[in-house]
Design a protein that fits this description.
There is one protein chain. The protein is an all-alpha fold. The chain has one domain. The protein has four helices and no strands. Helix 2 packs antiparallel against helix 3 and helix 3 packs antiparallel against helix 4. The mean pLDDT is 89.
Length: 80
């Protein structure tokens, strides 16, 4: 976290947008890999914030991670 805090603020946001763009524009396993990397990063942030969250926030994060992982799986097998 200290390493991420020392980075420029816009860099993390840019990385998220690049991974999302790769997942949306790319095809096959390249798109799936971009979305899975994004899901892992967001899952890690959700894990770090878990104790401070109420139940609705936890549910929302789990639904978002499941949707992102499902989207990555669908891109990986070529269904979407």
């Amino acid at each position: 976290m200290v390493y991420l805090h020392r980075m420029p603020r816009g860099l993390l946001l840019a990385v998220v947008f690049v991974l999302l763009a790769i997942g949306m524009v790319g095809t096959g396993w390249v798109a799936a890999a971009g979305l899975l990397v994004l899901a892992v990063a967001l899952g890690w942030f959700a894990y770090l914030n878990w104790p401070a969250l109420e139940v609705p926030g936890r549910v929302l994060r789990m639904v978002a991670l499941a949707a992102l992982a499902g989207f990555a799986l669908a891109r990986g097998i070529g269904r979407f």
